[in-house]
Amino acid sequence: MATIVVETGTGSTTANSYVSEADLATYASDRGITLTGTAAVLIIQAMDYLESKNFIGTKADIDQALQWPRYGAEIDNYYVDSDVIPKLLKEAEMEICIAIDGGVNPLANQGRETLKEKVDSLEVEYKASSRADTYLTAAETKLQKLVVNIMRVTRV
Prior knowledge:
Elements: H1 21-30, H2 39-50, E1 58-59, E2 70-71, E3 74-75, E4 78-79, H3 87-101, E5 117-119, E6 122-124, H4 137-143
Antiparallel strand pairs: 1-2, 3-4, 5-6
């Protein structure tokens, strides 16, 4: 069983989460959600996804275990102190935990995009532009201000 070590803004070398198991339980309960999975496992899985993001700013210390705390991170035109873990980041982690508990794993291998499938009288056809994966709207909305936006420019 995983032991959760919460990053509090000190740049811990052993932290593996931005939230505690109790934080997750309260967040889910406040939203009328009952988690069925083990909180520590959900948290570790959510952190695997979060740590894959390209966050704004620079890690506060090269030896810290996680991407936050950071220097130079600006949210809504205000700099985030280098010893602060943003509330949006904590909420995003908990939203990812809830999604994983509900059977949506953002790091799962993606299957082929189904164009048409027929089984007996049941037929399914997906729009050509549909996503091949599940988009975690609640988590990604919270992360929007915390990650680097990559814009591609193409010359003709």
